[in-house]
Amino acid sequence: MTKTSEAQYRSGFAALVGRPNVGKSTLLNALVGQKVAIMSNRPQTTRNRIRGVLTTPEMQIVFIDTPGIHKPHHRLGEYMVEAAEATFREVDVILFVCDVTQPNHPGDDHVLEKLKNVQTPVFLVLNKVDAVEKPKILEMIATYRDKHSFAEIIPVSAKHQEQLDVLTAALARVLPEGPQFYPADMVTDHPEQFIISEIIREKVLHLTREEVPHSVAVGIEQLERREASDVLYIHAVIYTERDSQKGILIGKRGAMLRKVGQLARQELEALFGNKVYLELWVKVKKDWRNEPSMLRRFGFDDV
């Protein structure tokens, strides 16, 4: 990729913030053109700050998808909110993402309250515009203009990739001049273990009932490429908090766990371009979401 001269090149960091389940991860994936964050219709799917990189000849934007800002009920929830709010001070621009199909949601006002004293430019990004009529969008724009002084207001559809060029063009206007932080072909800087654990957790979110998803974490015990074969060997443990949840995750005669493994393996093979041998186990660790040592084990380093 041919790049403009360093003096003119722009680069910086943009945080995606908002309440849970407004489509931040879908937007991140659409902006970088590849899946780097797992997606589901469950609130609080994103737990860590996920970084995705968009590189063009004129600029490089490092997007940071943050956990949804909500009122926490355990130490993991507190970490998630702290991680999201910490990005306010670390980025060049904040993308406040709202769902236009749910206007006047109190959770949006809660996030805006957090943004009230932030000096960083804030863009209002109205997502899911493909699902509503134009008058509803204009009504929501008028409502939010009175709530905050936004640097930009941009309606988009992450699902259908509408108006994303408008959003990136607006970002280019506010980013500072600077160098590339990452190679042009890199779309995320997360290690393989993190990506693998997130893909496995995504399959659990899609397949299990309401009581299971939020209590699940995935630890990668072994990741090995053996020289004598073209196979990636993965041994992972799915942790949950109760014996009843373990039973659901395993399923009758192991059917649920096999389905999780099958779907995860298919995606991992497509991602890595290798055959994958995936071994999954389920363990109970009571109240792990309130245990600092377990949270650090799963990558929540600041607890």
What percent of residues are in strands? 15-25%
Using only C-alpha atoms, the radius of gyration works out to 20 Å
Q: Average pLDDT across residues?
A: 83
Number of separate structural domains? 2
Going by helix content, strand content and strand pairing, the class is alpha/beta
Shape: globular
* Largest sheet data: 6 strands, mixed
Low-confidence stretches: none
Write out the CATH superfamily name of the largest domain: P-loop containing nucleotide triphosphate hydrolases
By CATH reckoning, the class of the largest domain would read: Alpha Beta
Summarize the structure in words.
With 303 residues, the chain is of the alpha/beta class. The chain has two domains: 10-174, Rossmann fold (3-Layer(aba) Sandwich), CATH 3.40.50; 192-297, K homology (KH) domain (GMP Synthetase, Chain A, domain 3). 34% of the residues lie in helices and 22% in strands. It contains nine helices and nine strands. It has a six-stranded mixed beta sheet, sandwiched between helices. Strands 7-8-9 form a three-stranded mixed beta sheet. Helix 6 packs across helix 8. The chain is globular and about 55 Å long. The two termini are 40 Å apart. The model has no long low-confidence stretch (mean pLDDT 83).
Question: What's the SSE blueprint?
Answer:
Blueprint: E1 10-17, H1 24-32, E2 50-55, E3 59-65, H2 75-86, E4 93-99, H3 106-115, E5 122-127, H4 134-145, E6 152-155, H5 164-174, H6 192-207, E7 217-225, E8 231-240, H7 243-250, H8 255-272, E9 275-284, H9 292-297
Brief synopsis:
With 303 residues, the chain is an alpha/beta fold. 34% of the residues lie in helices and 22% in strands.
